Amino acid sequence: MDFVKSIYKDYKSYLNKDVKLGGWIKSVRDSKTFGFIVLSDGTFFKTIQVVFDDQLENFAEVVKLTIGSSVIVNGRVVESPGAKQDFEIKAESIEIVGPADADFPIQKKRHSFEYLRTIAHLRPRTNTYTAVFRIRSLVAYAIHKFFVDRGFVYVHTPIITGSDCEGAGEMFQVTTLDVGKPPLDEEKAIDYGKDFFGKETYLTVSGQLAVENFCMNFRNVYTFGPTFRAENSNTQRHASEFWMIEPEIAFADLSDNMRLAEDMLKYICSYVLENAPEEMEFFDKFIRKGLIDRIQNVIDSDFVRITYTEAVDLLLKSGKKFEFPVEWGKSLQSEHERYITEQIYKKPVFVTDYPKDFTAFYMRMNEDGKTVANMDLLVPEVGEIIGGSQREERFDVLKKRIDEMGLDEKDYWWYLDLRRFGTVPHAGYGLGFERAIMYLTGVENIRDVIPFPRTPKNADF
User: Fold this and answer.
1) Phi and psi (nearest 5°) for 332?
2) Which of 34, 38, 231, 360 sits between 20 and 30 A of 181, alpha carbons compared?
3) Contact 138, 271 (CB under 8 A)
4) Are 238 and 452 in contact (CB under 8 A)?
5) Residue 21 Cα distances to 24, 89, 238, 300, 378, angstroms
6) Maximum CA pair distance of the chain?
7) What is the pLDDT along the chain (461 residues), one digit of tens a residue?
8) How many C-beta atoms surround the C-beta of residue 138 within 10 A?
9) Distance between CA atoms of 461 and 453, rounded to whole angstroms?
10) What phi and psi values does residue 364 have, to the nearest 5 degrees?
11) Whole-model pTM?
């Protein structure tokens, strides 16, 4: 069977040759003796026009086909007399494979994203989601290619875990106990010793702690997989299940970490523009005007590097009145991040060395005792897109930090072991995959870049 993509890439070599295509009908229109089918076979963003006439044995059945029906077309590639395309398929036979009922929910009109989320099993057949999910696939491949080409080892970290990487407690519990009548111990507390794993376990919020183990042998590693947050946030940027890219590099500091993050983001942007021009043109035209220029700006820019303290000073001196007041020692809000990257620098910005009080326990303490060696990458129109740090490689300092934050040292005994047996300076970061897709496509809601979104009160399909 032939493919629409192959014909588009070199249609002149197909002219006046027979082809066989299988696909789904996007539209069909007919006159008394001939008709036109717009066909998509899933291999290319663009569709192909099929011309048929009453010489077909099943002409009467074909003209009655509705949008969504699947067919196999045998025909010849010919030059098109129409102005909209250079070529078309002159059908010699059309086999009806799977006719669609007349109430197929996706018709030839504009549907809202909200409506399409209610039919997530069918929405990939629309132009927008066809483009989104092809970009998602391409970016996933580009990420793997970027790291593998640099000698990184890909590590599959566990999805079920007994430790909380972020220490925030927003984890989904995994249990086989009868939640209505769980076994109790002598103190009338739930006896997790009788659970499947013999202890409390959860869905992971990050693969970082586990991938650090492999960093201590392979030097440069990464994990790329699903993560879960039981955070009751109904925003356009939050989902309960999402994917994370988390590299870890040994014998490296925060500067090495930022250099890797910058190189990776630029690589992904370049790869998408080069390998999905049709989809990117669609997004630029229909989803977010100027999208391609925005992405090109990332590729062409030298990313700025400023400290959190410098960022606070810039915001205070700007004279801008923000909804959330700016104060040293408080988290930067999205409005602050966007002002820095959009109004002050107009390009991506790394903000480093945040106060220790609102950062994770594993981040390396700076000499001032007040800040840690971490970084956030801010990009125009989004704000923070990557977060990372140099890890605390000193056993005593890490142990003290775990105690200060009220975490149970027993949960991290193996993590502390890494500091006892050949510790080295190392660093890493996390890129939320869906937020990267949102940035690259201009799509504003995370629910529209995940095939089947999981959000509070929503686990359909």
Assistant:
1) -75, 130
2) 231
3) yes
4) no
5) 10, 10, 40, 41, 45
6) 85
7) 999 999 999 999 999 999 999 999 999 998 889 999 999 999 999 999 999 999 999 999 999 999 999 999 999 999 998 778 899 999 999 999 999 999 999 998 899 999 999 999 999 999 999 999 999 999 999 999 999 999 999 999 999 998 776 655 689 999 999 999 999 999 999 999 999 999 999 999 999 999 999 999 999 999 999 999 998 888 888 899 999 999 999 999 999 999 999 999 999 999 999 999 999 999 999 999 999 999 999 999 999 999 999 999 999 999 999 999 999 999 999 999 999 999 999 999 999 999 999 999 999 999 999 999 999 999 998 889 999 999 999 999 999 999 999 988 988 999 999 999 999 999 999 999 999 999 999 999 999 999 999 999 999 99
8) 18
9) 9
10) -70, 130
11) 0.94
CA distances from 208 to 75, 350, 401 (A): 53, 20, 17
> In this structure, are residues 205 and 188 in contact, taking their beta carbons and an 8 Å threshold?
no
**Token digits for 168?**
């925030």
The answer to whether 284 and 277 are in contact (CB under 8 A) is: no
Residue 167 zone, left/alpha/beta (φ > 0; ψ -120 to 50; rest): left
Tokens of 364: 């390396």
Show the tokens assigned to 445.
């809601």
Residues 6+ apart with CB under 8 A from 370: 355, 356
